[in-house]
What does this fold into?
Amino acid sequence: MEDRKQTSFTFEIDNFWDKEALIRSPNFFSGGCQWFVDVYPRGCGIEDHLSTFLCVANPESLLLGWKRRAILSLVLLNVSGKRLYRTYRDGPPCKTFCAQFPAWGWADAMPLEMLQENGFMEKNKLIVQVNVQVVEVVDEAEVTGKETLDVNGFQVLYSEVGQVTTIFAKHPDVALNFIPKSQLVKTVYMKLLMFLIEKLNKPPRSFIRNELSNARMELIDLTKAGFKLDWLKEKLDEISLERKKANGDGSLSSYGFRVQELEEQVKNLNLKLDTEKVKSAKVLSLEQTVSDLRDELSKEKTRSTTTTKDVLEGVIRSWEVLDYPDLSNEEVE
It folds into this structure.
């Protein structure tokens, strides 16, 4: 059984405020593999925060399908041992590391402004302590493409983890009041949210009226489920406004909408027409093939009947030619 004891790794960063580039710790061992910590003194994705990530060292050297589930926590200390910050409040998170996601961490670990306050940083030195408790080890497994990871309570496919992680990074409170508890229902709602976000990333002029109406209804449904989507509503309102501006004001606006809708309908009908033409051509080809086969079958039947008749007539003629004696009148000796 895998040793599930917690591993605590600590390293010091001297002259912290003089650093701007990525700082990487030495490797340490836990849960059957090597790890290291990346620290971004000026943030990674969030410029006004210290960012820290725990990474699996040399993941390409591990076997196909490898996985590590680990409980993580991060503590920042000054040289006096005073705890400046920790990355969790209600308990450390459990994350899954794998080939697709060999690193997890905290882009907003600590505001730089807080680090600059008097009494926090001493002697321009920061001590980083990472605690890792590996709770599951998979050295090798079959990869099907349907594997999922837990992201803030939602089970999502590996291919969707990046998008979902970005949603929570930009909007940490997006699912705080989410109502459904069923994992299947949660997965469906998360897919709907990702689909709506992708849809609203299109240029405003590419939307037709029905699309915007449908998007607004989807937004209402997601909000009723408990998602906090004020930011998405603002984007939808901006798209609606941009579209109205692009089509002019007053009567010209409705005219522009109608023209765009008709153009879209004509485009869709043309696509359907092309599809039906292909189907029709296939049907005609099949009908011709069936007709040819029927003709050939009729010919074969005729030929077969004629051949059988000729054979029978030949046999009868052969009997007539042969002079068989009448054995019925012979006496038995």
Remarks:
- Confidence is low (pLDDT under 50) at residues 249-254, 327-333.
- The domain at 1-143 is CATH 2.60.210.10 (Apoptosis, Tumor Necrosis Factor Receptor Associated Protein 2; Chain A).
